[in-house]
């Protein structure tokens, strides 16, 4: 309501609003000296205990032709029978007409840490005469896992911990031909590297000599018509004109894991640079132990000796194991899957749903 009393008139000039003066805060010291023990370092122990109770999930996919030792390699990685057997004794294995994905889930526990491991195999990939669009079932499967996670995430009442079935890493097995990468290899990695972390490996590297293995890592060539994998130079010119495999991957827009674009920390970049120099890893898988110098080691027994799987002088399996399981890369695989590949899929799906 209005007041009936007369308003008082002031003879003073109206106040001019003062200009806002920006306030600058001096940056504080990076570290603060404490007077005593606070206990903030105990947060790491709390996180460790919580992770050990709840466990974590890790999903890996192996892709390659039949007979390249995919199942054996997975069993060697986790030192247990976590992957299917390629064939049963006394029975002939029938190659499926199309790519049929098979997933097996296990719970592995080591020193109190539980991991729910899902291995997805792709029998029938690249086994046919006509391999046109043979990667479509794999792309469809990966996108289906993203879609399943997205549907759980956008629910009004959602679970506190959403089940994670997304593929965190895809190990692609290259046949040990000792020659060039096939167009199928390059086309698969080009398509899949955009939606999942791809780690290429040379399967059954014990069939190659050290010289052949080193040369195979560099033998990638594109002919004048742009068809990869077709040589058009003499063998004497190979060493001088064939580019390295990393350069060919860049030429075909193939970004394998670990990707250079995601290296933020200088120490991580230096470590990943050393790993990228070894890609593709020349690996050998074995799930049987043998006696070598009084020790039981995993290896493959031949007429001339035993190939030790965990010996860096024999193969590069330890590098692959460190990349996928040990050090910091297992969590990094999950972070890139969530923050990069899944985020790209989520943005694309939400944009599609918002279109009129």
UniProtKB/TrEMBL annotation:
GO terms for biological process: cell division. Residues 54-352 form the Septin-type G domain. One of its GO terms (molecular function) is GTP binding. It is found in: Chromosome, Centromere, Kinetochore; Cleavage furrow; Midbody. Pfam families: Septin (PF00735). Transmembrane segments: none annotated. InterPro entries: G_SEPTIN_dom (IPR030379), P-loop_NTPase (IPR027417), Septin (IPR016491). CDD domains: CDC_Septin (cd01850). GO terms for cellular component: cleavage furrow; cytoskeleton; kinetochore; midbody. Keywords: Cell cycle, Cell division, Centromere, Coiled coil, GTP-binding, Kinetochore, Nucleotide-binding. Belongs to the TRAFAC class TrmE-Era-EngA-EngB-Septin-like GTPase superfamily. Septin GTPase family. This is Septin-7. The gene is Sept12.
């Amino acid at each position: 309501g209005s007041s009936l009393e007369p308003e008082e008139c002031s003879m003073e000039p109206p106040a001019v609003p003062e200009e806002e003066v920006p306030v600058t805060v001096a940056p504080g010291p990076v570290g603060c000296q404490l007077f005593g023990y606070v206990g903030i370092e105990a947060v790491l122990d709390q996180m460790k205990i919580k992770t050990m109770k709840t466990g974590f999930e890790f999903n890996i996919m192996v892709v390659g032709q039949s007979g390249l030792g995919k199942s054996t390699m997975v069993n060697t990685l986790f030192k247990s029978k976590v992957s299917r057997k390629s064939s049963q004794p006394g029975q002939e294995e029938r190659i499926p007409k199309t790519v049929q994905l098979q997933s097996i889930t296990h719970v592995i526990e080591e020193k109190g840490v539980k991991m729910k491991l899902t291995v997805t195999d792709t029998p029938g990939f690249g086994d046919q005469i006509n391999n046109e669009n043979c990667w479509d079932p794999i792309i469809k499967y990966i996108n289906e896992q993203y879609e399943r996670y997205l549907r759980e995430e956008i629910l009004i009442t959602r679970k506190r911990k959403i089940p994670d079935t997304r593929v965190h890493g895809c190990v692609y097995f290259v046949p040990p031909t000792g020659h060039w990468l096939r167009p199928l290899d390059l086309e698969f990695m080009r398509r899949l590297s955009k939606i999942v972390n791809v780690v290429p490996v040379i399967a059954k590297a014990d069939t190659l000599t050290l010289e052949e293995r080193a040369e195979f890592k560099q033998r990638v060539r594109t002919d004048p018509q742009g068809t990869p994998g077709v040589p058009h130079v003499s063998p004497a010119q190979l060493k001088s004109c064939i580019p390295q495999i990393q350069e060919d991957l860049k030429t075909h827009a193939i970004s394998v894991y670990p990707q250079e674009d995601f290296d933020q920390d200088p120490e991580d970049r230096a470590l990943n640079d050393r790993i990228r120099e070894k890609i593709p890893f020349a690996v050998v898988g074995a799930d049987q132990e043998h006696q070598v110098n009084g020790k039981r080691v995993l290896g493959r027994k031949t007429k001339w000796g035993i190939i030790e799987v965990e010996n860096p002088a024999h193969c590069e399996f330890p590098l692959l194991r460190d990349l996928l399981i040990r050090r910091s890369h297992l969590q990094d695989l999950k972070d890139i899957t969530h923050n990069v590949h899944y985020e790209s899929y989520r943005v694309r799906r939400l944009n599609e749903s918002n279109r009129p």
